[in-house]
From TrEMBL:
Keywords: Isomerase. One of its GO terms (molecular function) is isomerase activity. Pfam families: ECH_1 (PF00378). It comes from Paracoccus aestuarii. The keyword Iron-sulfur does not apply. This is 2-(1,2-epoxy-1,2-dihydrophenyl)acetyl-CoA isomerase. InterPro entries: ClpP/crotonase-like_dom_sf (IPR029045), Enoyl-CoA_hyd/isom_CS (IPR018376), Enoyl-CoA_hydra/iso (IPR001753), Enoyl-CoA_hydra_C (IPR014748). The lineage of its organism: Bacteria, Pseudomonadati, Pseudomonadota, Alphaproteobacteria, Rhodobacterales. The keyword Isomerase applies.
Length: 256
């Protein structure tokens, strides 16, 4: 596929989607949102994991404020462009790692936090920058943040619009891991390989179960676990996993 605002490549089952407007810190414009959505909803069968990252010195600075058409009708832009893009991340048919290589601000932060796993460089930071221009957090921020870090920290991030360094974000549970900048590429490569070689059907069921857990009571969650585990137990990957365990070898999962 040919893209203007992103780079997209597949190697060893891992698709790397790089936001590629480094001159503006990979700010999101209409074209980029459409290309992210297209790339994630038309994955080739051989793709088993996705890495979402940014070109240059930042991950994503959020909405491109020079995009006058988007600014003229923010409500329509969010419904017509942001919602499909975020749905493409949260319903991606394979696990998604956000590899946050620098500042992630505004909608750019919430795009990263929509991924299944977020790994950041120690020099990265997360900023809910919306109140700096008189707006409220969007792109899922008001849903994601309180569930990840609690009401008090979410409110503080949103009201004060101050950067949260990656190490602090990891300590809060906002992201999975903050790693030294020098180790970042190797860590991302290794983590993506683990997911690409894993039981992707089980991974997606974990995503489904965790998404439901905040709304379910225990009884409903137990019922969901039973249904999802039943699906996993009927999979070829379960058979392979047990066989490999008994044969004392590494499993070779086929994935969903």
């Amino acid at each position: 596929m040919d893209f203007e605002t992103i780079q997209f490549q597949v190697e060893d089952g891992v698709a790397t989607l790089t936001l590629n407007r480094p001159a503006v810190m990979n700010a999101l414009n209409s074209r980029m949102r459409a290309e992210i959505t297209e790339a994630l909803t038309t994955l080739a069968p051989e793709v088993r994991a996705v890495v979402l990252t940014g070109a240059g010195r930042g991950f994503c600075s959020g909405q491109d404020l020079t995009d006058r058409a988007a600014a003229a009708n923010l409500e329509a832009t969010l419904r017509d462009e942001y919602e499909p893009m975020l749905a493409a991340v949260t319903t991606c048919p394979v696990p998604v790692i956000a590899a946050v290589n620098g500042v992630a601000a505004g909608a750019g932060a919430n795009l990263a936090l929509a991924a299944d796993v977020v790994i950041a460089t120690e020099s990265a930071s997360f900023i809910q920058a919306f109140t700096r221009i008189g707006l409220i957090p969007d792109a899922g921020g008001t849903w994601i943040l309180p569930r990840a870090v609690g009401h008090a920290r979410a409110m503080g991030m949103m009201l004060f619009a101050e950067p949260v360094p990656a190490r602090q974000a990891a300590d809060w549970g906002l992201i999975w891991q903050a790693v030294p900048d020098a180790d970042f590429e190797g860590v991302i490569r290794d983590r993506a390989r683990v997911l690409a070689q894993g039981p992707t059907g089980a991974f997606l069921s974990i995503r489904e179960a965790l998404a439901a857990a905040t709304a379910n009571d225990l009884s409903a969650q137990l019922e969901l676990e039973a249904r999802l585990q039943g699906q996993a137990g009927r999979s070829a990957d379960f058979v392979e996993g047990v066989t490999a365990f008994l044969e004392k070898r590494r499993p070779v999962f086929r994935g969903a």
